[in-house]
Amino acid sequence: MKRTFLLFLVGIFMGTLSGLTGQAIAASSIVVVVDAPPRTMHPNGSDADCNLSVMANFFDGLLQRKGPEGKLVPALAVRYEHPDLLTWKFYLRKGVKFHNGNPFTAEDVKFSFERLSNPEVSEFINTGKSIASIDIIDDYTVVIKTKEPTQWFANNLHQIYMTDKESTEARDPGEVGVKPIGTGAYKFVEWVKGSYLKMAANEDYWEGAPPIKNVDLRAITESSTRFAALVSGQADLVSGVPVELYKKVIQNPKLEVITRAARRAIFLALGNKPGSPTADIRVRKAMYMAINEDEIIEKIMRGHAAPAAQIVDPATIGYNPDIKRLAYNPEMAKKLLKEAGYEKGFDITLAGPNDRYVQDEKIAEAVVKYLAKVGIKANLDVKPKSIFFPEVTGGKLDFYLIGWFDGAFDMARTYFKLIHTRDAERGFGGWNGTKFSDVTMDLLLESTAGIVDQGKRLQVIQDLNKMAMVDKIAWIPLHYQQDMYAIQKGKGIKFQPRADRWIIFKEISKE
Amino acid sequence: MGTYILRRLIQGAFVLLAVSFICFIIFRYVGDPVLSLAGRYATIQEREMVREAFGLDKPFYVQYTRFIFNAAQGNFGKSYVSRIPALGLILERFPATAELATTAIFIAFVLGVGLGVLVSVKPYALRNRFIMAGSLGGISTPTFLMGIVLIMIFAVYLGILPPFGRGDTVKIGFWRTGFLTWSGISHLILPAFTLGMYQLAVLLRLTRAGMREVLTEEYIKTAWSKGLPPRKVIFKHALRNVLIPVVTMTGLQFGELIAFSIVTETIFQWPGMGNLLLTSIYESDQPVIVTYIMLAALIILSLNIIVDILYAFLNPKIRYD
Fold this sequence. Notes:
heterodimer; B: mainly alpha; two-stranded antiparallel sheet; 2 strands
């Protein structure tokens, strides 16, 4: 009895071992592991970067962002004109075909933009609703007029994907949402939700066939499993190497780690409600100076972050290189608090998410401790992002930690959402969670909408940035996160991470 | 018996109704789906427009009645995230979870009962004491720790088993199975062991306790004294009588394995229903969450009823009136 039982056990193990033939990977194939799964196959059905990044391989926008710097270059439109503040005229690329063979024409552009306003299939309601009219001049010329001057309209077009009118209307809506047909460098092969997404090179791609022929994209949300996939050689390229396992990864001779500054800045938002302590700019300044950001980066981020002096990154229009961080100076902070009449400090609640950004909860804890050192009693109130974000958009907070970057690379768009006085009527301040309000900044921001000369506009936005960060201390900037990737050495994979963290497979090659 | 089953079914319907009501109340407070549905850059007005389009501006009782009305017709609404019907999304994941749970319960049953018998025959042997101590470990080790340790040993250091996913699968009709490929089976081993470990330990202890009690009974002594071979005494006379509570337990546990394999599925990135549930909670995808919990309640209820009925067949002493 005993023996048969043992034999049975051994049998199970031997059987499975013999079945484990090494997973040979063809030369032009790649297995990519990411930390967040694709959500839907509707091209604009999600505005999460994890989804936009995947869709960018199946679909093209009128424009695209290329290479590590994310330069805006033509894609399905060969060029565009912007004759007045409301008008955008696009000249389309000829001879482009969708994966099903349908030609790409102006009809598809009109259809794709109109679809953006339908909440059933789009999370780009804002872009859809900003459009007043779409006119087809001929098969390859389209004129789009916006309702209001929208300076960043073209800057956003790398993530507005063009979809095939004929097949989208003809197919069952359920199928459209799981089997995408685009013009992109890769054709859809198979999506097993929660497991993998397979794609194959589009040999007729208008930019030329991509070097990698087969892509197998897998999402692993659990960081230790992602690490195991990498170390056991099951993944060629992994994005989202966990900070806590970074050392283990660099010690592994088979792996190469690539890091780059992320676009997202982490910062603290403050209110200025009349009568509240933070209405006094000296208090806001004191809180800024009380926080030892260098120590946060060293101890909590373990070196994987860069200090930020503003809330936009260098790639964003409006980034001002002249803005410097206020140095850590608790003594000065105490002095400022005394001047403001808060020698004994005050109570404030620091809110924040605990499942959104790298080490978000730890950072918030550290901020509370630094503030305590200058006498400010901050109560920590961290919670899941699904609870936290509605509080921000509801304008219910006094002081909170948040991260942001602008998908259209335009600071004005971000400022309209984050710092303009809340105004439901005009659609401003939707993410102004502390109801911060400053008339001077509002007026300056609104004035940028009507500036035709882009050089002049940039100047005004940069000035506005400086005003917000230095003169008004509207936020306390903390740091830019760092993105970490790992690749298997010796497989000849050439990969350069992008600023937006998208993985565009046509930009990867393998020897 | 007939009236008993009918009564159980009616009770079950009420339980389901209560579950759906509680779900609905709770998930009103786990976040606002409109925020992501309308997109990050939506204005306050655009958000309200989306809220109306999805009927989320309606009062609670209207939303709930509409949900029950639709659910009764098999329509559980569309996922807010993937924008396809929630029920289809979950059922598509069902084969993965069912195969994982079946394998886990199979391992737990075979090893649990097998080792339980082994241990009960010579309870004081050193090896058997080790097995008993190990079973305590199996009960008290949290699943996530067990999973990570197994991954580290078998996938990272030894490199003999894959750390995540389901491997190659074969599609038979709507059912996507991993049983038919080596890759599928090798991917199944670690998660199935992780998931079944607790059950294994429970069944082992249950079998051992039962066996120890039964082996002292008079009729076993009679069997020994008749000179029957040990195999016959232990398996035919003793184990059969011990199996009744063990089978009941296995059946009850099976439902829970299917419904709540969340942790194991997340660690091994197993594309099953539990993994989907966790992702959906993170994304405030209410239609999927509510549908899942309804489905889980349905599975557990059905298994409970089936076990009750089987019990009556296995043990003629039990009567339901």
